[in-house]
Write a structure and sequence with these properties.
The complex is a heterodimer of chains A (about 80) and B (about 270). Chain A is α+β, with helices and mostly antiparallel strands and about 80 residues long. Chain A contains two helices and three strands. The N and C termini of chain B lie close together (about 5 Å). The chains are: A alpha+beta (about 80), B alpha/beta (about 270).
Chain lengths: ~80, ~270
């Protein structure tokens, strides 16, 4: 079966986000009342798996092994079956 | 081992761009260095035939995902067993800039438990943000553990350039103090960013060019045979690479970067 996965990698709280801070300043200079900007990265993945449980396990592994560095990154994902 | 018998592997992948300068630095010291693509080593299964391994600077795989991450995971998957043996034989492994990012992502540095399954540190986005290419000053902090800096007296200030966008060395927030203490206790701290006069940067730009925790610019493994640093010693190897050489009456033949390559070569000739 094929699954559509959306993985979001964001910075753990307490870690500074220079990219977000710089974007916030830029938006502020454009006169938008921006309070905070946090930058995340999104991966849209198509994955083959035998079941939803199998797909979840594989995505967990993908996040831990490559997409996130546990020192600074959080990850969360959504999975749906492609019909 | 005689100098002429030493064979160094300067590994490259797509996006590596400091391999030629690194090779030239070793050749100036009369040791053989070969630039070899990761896939060639995998196909020939000959990593263990080399005496030292260098991950040079560049932007491997376009710095996608995180700088150094794809190369690091590729090595673990394709060369994991051989690399483990290589490291166990205490053959030196050097990572420069992108190479340092690779060693951290591969769990080889700081490597408190030899090789960790997941990274124990990260080289995060520079703070202030942006790609930075400039000369910096480094203070040598190692008390003798690191085989790559044996020729540098402790507290000596070196001038070597950096060129990176992701060089902010950090530990997990909740283990920052503990990990720093382990780094110091194990004599794994090698270089810290400082001013020209040798005062620690204290996290402040421009002496600390990327916001690195504790001004960390380079660290080594617990046994001192794996070393990673963000600055580029191969770009400070010759005197004519220094930024002010045209203003000097006498151009020095070599820059501070030579000391790192010399220390590594000397270790190889003495140890093996």
């Amino acid at each position: 079966m094929e699954y559509r996965v959306r993985v979001e990698i964001s910075l753990k709280s307490g870690h500074s986000d220079p990219e977000g801070e710089t974007t916030k300043k830029a938006l502020f200079e454009l006169k938008y009342p921006v309070k905070a900007v946090n930058v995340s990265k999104v991966y849209n993945i198509r994955l083959e798996a035998t079941s939803l449980k199998d797909a979840k396990g594989k995505v967990e592994e993908i996040c831990r092994r490559l997409l996130a560095n546990p020192v600074k990154d959080n990850y969360e994902f959504e999975i749906e079956e492609v019909k | 081992m005689k100098k002429e018998d030493v064979r160094i592997c300067v590994m490259r992948v797509g996006g590596t761009n400091c391999d030629a300068e690194t090779k030239r630095a070793f050749e100036d010291l009369c040791v053989k260095a070969e630039v070899v693509h990761l896939n060639q080593i995998v196909n020939r299964k000959n990593l263990l035939s080399y005496d030292a391994l260098v991950f040079p600077g560049g932007f491997s795989f376009g710095d996608y995902v995180r700088a150094g991450a794809i190369w690091a995971k590729g090595i673990a998957a394709k060369l994991g067993r051989d690399l483990k043996k290589f490291v166990e034989q205490e053959k030196p492994v050097l990572g420069i800039c992108n190479g340092f990012q690779v060693l951290v992502e591969a769990g080889l540095l700081p490597g408190f438990d030899r090789v960790s399954e997941y990274p124990q540190a990260a080289l995060a986005t520079n703070e202030p943000t942006g790609y930075r290419c400039k000369w910096v000053h480094l203070k040598h902090e190692n008390s003798g553990r690191c085989i790559f800096t044996q020729k540098i007296p402790k507290r000596q200030v070196l001038r070597i350039p950096i060129a990176h966008a992701e060089g902010r060395f950090i530990f997990p927030r909740e283990q920052e103090k503990e990990y720093l203490q382990r780094l110091l206790d194990n004599d794994q701290l090698v270089f810290r960013y400082c001013s020209q006069e040798g005062e620690y940067a204290g996290g402040a730009y421009p002496a600390n060019p990327n916001g690195a925790f504790y001004d960390i610019a380079g660290i080594c493994s617990v046994d001192g045979t794996i070393f990673g640093l963000m600055p580029h010693p191969e770009r400070a190897y010759y005197g004519w690479q220094l930024p002010d050489w045209t203003r000097r009456e006498q151009v020095p033949k070599y820059g501070d970067g030579k000391l790192i390559f010399e220390s590594m070569t000397e270790y190889l000739t003495k140890k093996f």
